[in-house]
Queue: 3 jobs
Job 1
Amino acid sequence: MTTDSTSSVLILGAGLSGLMAARRLVAAGRTVRVLEARDRVGGRTHAVPALPGAAPTDLGATWGWSHQPQLLGLARELGLAPFEQFSTGATAYETGGTVHRLPHPSGSAGYLRFTGGAAALAQAAAAALPAGTVQLNARATALRQLPDGVEVTVAENGRLRTYRADAVVVALPPRLAAHSLQFKPALPAAVQAAQQQMPTWMSHSMKSLVTYETPFWRSQGWSGFAVSQNGPLTEIHDASPPEGRPGVLFGFFAAPHPLRNAAPAAREAAVVAQLVRIFGPAAVHPLAYQELDWTREPYTSTPADEAAPLSVPLQGPPELRTPLWQGRLIWAGAETASGEWGRLDGAVEAGARAAAQVLAGQNLASQITQDKTQAT
C-alpha cells in the first residue's frame, strides 16, 4: 500500500453532486481531488449515441423542469441550454390488450432535456476543473478519521493507495456508501440506519432506447408519450434530439419483470412488439436498440435496491446533511437534498451545500488555530 500526498478536500464520486461540490471548492481556492470508481464521470447520468455519429441520448437520469433553479443555474454557468421534450399530440394508454388514444396534452409536457443528454452537464463540469482534479478507476473502500483530517483507502489498478485530506465529501448514494465503505470509527447508529433506509434514485430502473430513421409517430398525431399496463415498458417517451432526427423512443422496464432476466434479444423483441402495438407497423424495424439495467451497476446499486421503493422521500434525512468527524466528513448526493430529492436539481443543491459545509468547517478550524496561536 502506498500513500499519496494530502489534498485540501477529497470528493468520493464524480456524479453531478460531487462535481458541483468540486466546482464550488475550487472556486474558493481549495485543492480538490475527485475519486471516481467508474471509467467515466456522470454517475447516474449516462448517455450513448442513438446511432453512430448521432448525439448521445440518456440511458440514465434525464430531466429538469422550469421550477428547478439549482439545475438551470448550473446549466447557464456551463453554457448548456435545455430544450423542451417533444410532447405535442395524443397520449397512448395501453391496457387489457387495447391501445387508447387520449387527446389531452401529453403527460410529459414541460420536461426539459439537454443536447448530449444530462451527462453533458457532468462532462462539462469536469472539463472545467483544473487538469488532474478528477481521477477515474479509483474506488474508495475505507475512510478513517485522523486527528487532523481523514484518510481514504482507494483501490486503483489492482493495488491499494491511501489519500489524506483535511475533509472528505461522500457523494455516493447513502445505501451504496454503507454497503461499499468501511468507516473507522463506525458511524453513529442513527446515521447507519438512515443510510440503509434511504432508497437510491434510479437504482431499480431499466431503460431501453429504440432508434428509428425519423420520429414517424409524430405524423400520426402521437406525442410519443405512452403508459402501458401490459409492458414490458410501463412508460414511453419521445427522446428524439431537438432537430428531430433520428427518431428515438425510450421507455422504462417494469420492475420487477421476468424479461429483465431474459436474453437481450428476447427483451428487444418484446419491446419492439410493444411499440408496434402502440404506434403501428412503422415501428417494426428499428435501426438500433440499447438498454441499461441500473440494478446491475455495482457503483450505483446494492442488492437492497433491486425492488422499487414503496414511497419516494420528499427530502433526505437530517442525519445525511449533518457533518461528522468534527466537520471533516460531509455528505452530498441527490439522496441528501432538502428539495427535489433524487433528481438532478437535488444533486446540484446537495453538492453546493456540501461545499459550503466544508468551507465553513475549514474556516472555523483555521480561526480556532489562529486564536490558539495568539493566546500563546
Job 2
Amino acid sequence: MIEADEGMNKKNPHWGSTLDEFPREEGVRDATRAEAITRVVAWQLRQVMKRKGMSKTQMAALKRTSRARIDRILGARGNVTIETSQRAASLVGRELRVEMV
C-alpha cells in the first residue's frame, strides 16, 4: 500500500502539457486567444441580431457592405478588426468594449 501511495505522488511520465499550457508551449497562445475573442464577439453579435430580428442582408445594407462581408464578420473568418467589430456592434445598438487586464 505504501508503494501505491508513493506512485500516486509522482507525475505520470505519459501525460503531456495541460490544455492551458499547450498553446503557450506551441507558441500560439496569443493567436489562439485572439481567435477565441473574435469568435465570442461574433457570437454575441449574432445573438443581438437574432433578438432584434435583423437579417444578414439588413445588416449589410446598414453597414453599406456586402452580405459576404457580414458572413465573414459573423463567422469570425478573415481579419476582423476591432474597428469593424465596433461598427457592427453600433449598428445593433451595442458598444464593443476592449480592455487590458
Job 3
Amino acid sequence: MTIYALSSGSGISGIAVIRISGSDASNVIKLITGEDPPKPRVSNLKKFNKINTSELIDEGILLWFPGPDSYTGEDIAEMHVHGSVAVIRAILEQLSKIENCRLAEPGEFTKIAFQNGKINLLKAESISDLISAETEIQRQQAVKIMSGRSSEKFNSLREKLLKILSNVEAKIDFPEDDLPQDVIKNIKIDSENIRNEIEKILNDEKVGERIREGFKIAIIGPANAGKSSLLNYLSNRDVAIVSEIAGTTRDVIEAHLNLDGYPVVISDTAGIRESENEIERKGIKLALKRAEDADLNLIVIEPKSVDFTGFLNDLVSEKSIIVINKIDLGYKNINQQIEKFNPIFLSIKNETNLDELITRIKDKLKNKFVSSNETLITRERHRQSLEACVQNLKNFEEKNSKEDFDKAAEDLRLATRHLGMIVGKVDVEEILGSIFSDFCIGK
C-alpha cells in the first residue's frame, strides 16, 4: 500500500509539500506528471495534472528519494506546489483516485521508518517532540534525543545485562568448578552497578517530562485576592473572568506560556474559603489538588487576608512564592510574620513590582531545568520501563543470592526486555499506536 499526505502546515502558504511513500510511488508520479520519476535527490520542475483529463493543476518542484535510502526506507516522492487550499485539495483528490493509494494516518511515515529500521523509538518520539516544540528549551531537548545519546545509553545498559545473562546461563549449564571465579563474582557486582546507574537516571526530578509538558504553576489563595487578574497579566490576554464578586472562579483555568524559552502551564484556581455552595467546594478541592501536584505555587493574598492559622500555613513551602497583592490599598499594618517568607508586594491593578515576580518565577524555572546536565527520560513510558527494570534487577539479585538461578535468569530477561522496550529492541506493537497517534498527519 502506498500512502500520501500533506506534510506542510494546513492553510494558505507560499509552498505546500505533499509526500508519497510506498512501492507504487513511482507509478503515482507517472500518473500525475505523465513521466517516470526523475533522478534521485535532484530538484525538477514538473507539471502536475489531473489523471484522466491531463488538465493542469499546478506547476512545481518534484523530488524523488528511492528506497531504501529514504526517510521511510521505501520509495518517496515529494511534490512542492503552491500552498493554496484549491491546489492542495485538487492534488489530494487525484491521489485518492489511484488504486492502492490512501491517505496516511497520523505519524504513519515515521512509523514505517521505525518498522524498516531507519530510526528507533526514542528518535521517533524526539521527532514528534521537535515538531511540537514551542520553546527553545523544548527544541534543545528534542535535538539532544535525536542525536542518539539516550539511545546509546540505554542500548549500552541493555548489552551489559545481556552479558550478565549469558554468564548466569553458563552457570546453570555448567558445573561451578568449570567457570572462572571472577565470572561468578562479577554477576553480582555488575547487576548491582547497573541497577544503581538506572536508579540514578530515575532520580532526575522529572526534568525531561517538565520540559516536554511544561513547568506546572498553580495560582492559589483566598477568594477575591486577584488570582485571575494575575493569570490574565502573565498570559497577556483575558483568560479568566475578573470580578469583584468573591468566588467567581469555580473550575481550574489553564494557560500555556513561554517565559524566556521555558514552557509553563499556569493554572488559576478557585478561591479557598469556607463555603456552603457544593460546586464551589468542589472547585476548592480541585484547587488544593492542583497546588499539591504543581511544581510551583503562587500564593496570592491581600494584606487584610494574611492568616497563617488556616490553609496558608499548610501551603507555604520551598515550592511556593507568596504574593501580597493590592498594595495600592495600603499595607502598613500587615502581619510581620509574613516577612520571614520573603513575599513580593505588588499591585496588579497598577502593575507595580510585577517584573520582580516574573524574575522570581524565572529563577525557580532555571533552578529546576538546569538541575540535570543529561536528560534521558522525557516520557512516562520511559520511566515506567526503567522502574520495572529496577524491580526485576532487585528480584534477580535476591534469587541469585539464594542460588535459585533458573528463576533469577528469568528476572534478568525481563529486566533486559524492559530496557529494550524504550528503544524498540523487542516487540512493542502494543505501544506503537499511542506513540505515533501524537504525530501530525504527513509525518
